[in-house]
Amino acid sequence: MKLxxxxxxxxxxxxxxxxxxxxxxxxxxxxxxxxxxxxxxxxWKFVPRRIETADPVALDIGGFNLDVWERDAIEWSxxxxxxxxxxxxxxxxxxxxxxxxxxxxxxxxSDFNMKFRFPPELDTKALARMVWGFDSLKMDFIRENVxxxxxxxxxxxxxxxxxxxxxxKQFQQMMGAS
Length: 178
Known about the structure:
Layout (H helix, E strand, L loop, with lengths): L1 E9 L5 E2 L2 E2 L3 E10 L2 E9 L10 H6 L4 H7 L5 H11 L3 E4 L2 H14 L9 E3 H9 L6 H7 L11 H19 L3
Parallel strand pairs: 1-6, 6-7
Antiparallel strand pairs: 1-4, 2-3, 4-5
Helix pairs in contact: 5-7
């Protein structure tokens, strides 16, 4: 089975506004596992195309720093998005509140008129509830209350994707799977 652990950082909470893409992805991370082994890892910063719509609080939470982004960020392109589709094709997208992340990807794909049938999704919030029985399923709460997790680097796409891998592995152990 192919699992695509995914996380995004964004310029706000609304992928869509008035039927059009609104806030956007500033950072994306993917960790791909096939048959229980990591086979791919990627993390990118992206130049916001509509920075004027950004929520300053969201930018702060996601670690957005204009100097860093001007130096390290790349532009979205149809070629990059096609590659992303190839990576995700045939897998299951796994994330914490995964519909948020895939909603932003769908808005992005719409912006570029890219057609893609998104794979099934698995939300690590549900897995965390089964493993630890927490009432709060916020990632920060889970990090604070689970041995082996830390808040260091939190709210960065790669760290958050890695934490989804951790939660998934804890679920597998609980279920007695390998």
